[in-house]
Amino acid sequence: MRKQIAAANWKMNLTFQQGEKLLDDILIANIQLSNDCQVIFAVPFPYLIMAKSEIEEEKNYAVAAQNCSDQKPGAYTGEVSVEMLSSIGISHCIIGHSERREYYHETNSILAAKVDRCLEMNITPIFCCGESLKIRESGSQDDFVRLQLEESLFHLGPDSLKKIIIAYEPIWAIGTGKTATTAQAQEMHAFIRSVLSNKYGSEVAESISILYGGSVKANNAKELFSCPDVDGGLVGGASLVASEFIQIIRSLK
Ligand code: PGA
Q: What is the CATH number of the domain that holds 54?
C-alpha cells in the first residue's frame, strides 16, 4: 500500500534556533507512525544536519532538502549537489516547487535532470506540479499538469518512477488561504494517477503517493486527506506552527 505522508515545507523561514524549537515542539507530541505513514521535514540547507539529528530516534520520520543542483559536483558556486545531500544522510528532496519554477526559472527539462540526479544518489524526489489561476480559469489544468509530468518524469522506467513522491500544488492555493475543494483535489489527483496508469500501468500508478499542497491547515487536513487519491499533504505556512502541524500529522489516514 502506498504511504500517507505529511511533509512540512519551511521554505525560507525561521532562524536556526526557531527551527530547532519547532522540531522539539512537534516531536514532543510523540506521535507514533505506522509503517504506512511518514512525516518529512523539508528544511533550509543550513538546518539539514540539525533536523536529521532531531529525528534520529523517530521511526518513519525523514528530512528533505528543498532543492538540489541539476549538475554533478564541480564549479557551480552557491549550488548544492545531491552527493552533498547524500553524504549527510538526506533521503528526500523537493523538486520543482512552483516558487522555484517561477522565481528561478526552473523548466520541466531542468527538473527532469534534477529528478535523475536524485535517483542516482537514492534520494527520493518530492516532485511538485500544479497550475496557475490563469490556467485553471481557462480550463486547461489537466493538459498543463500532464505536460509537467511527461516532460520531467516520463523518461523514467517503471522501477524508477515508483520511487517518486508527487505533490499536486495548485499555485492559486499556495499561501493564499484558498484551498482547493476536496472535489477539485480528488479530481486532479485521480487525473494524475490516470496519466501515470496510462503510461506505466495501474500497479505502478497505485503505488505512488500523491500529496496535496496549497493552504493545508489543521482544520481542513482531515477532509482533504480522506479523498481516496490524496495521500497526505505538502504543507507550507501551517507547518511553521507546532500545534497546526501536529494536528495535520494526526489527520493522516
Ligand atoms: P502553503 O504552502 O501551505 O503555505 O499554501 C504549500 C507549499 O507551497 O508547499
A: 3.20.20.70
Using 50 as the pLDDT threshold, list the residues of the chain that sit under it.
Answer: none
The reported pLDDT for the residue numbered 180 is: 87
DSSP 208-232: S-EEEESS--TTTHHHHHTSTT--E
Distance CA 22, CA 172 (A): 27
**Is the pTM higher than 0.85?**
yes
C-alpha cell recorded at residue 123: 534520494
Residues catalogued as catalytic: 97, 169
Among 217, 235, 191, 218, residue whose Cα is nearest residue 94:
235
DSSP letter (8 states) at residue 32: P
Per the structure, the count of domains in the chain is 1
Its domain, for residue 201, covers 4-250
Does 169 contact ligand 1 (Cβ within 6 A)?
yes
Q: Is 244 in the pocket of ligand 1 (CB under 6 A)?
A: no
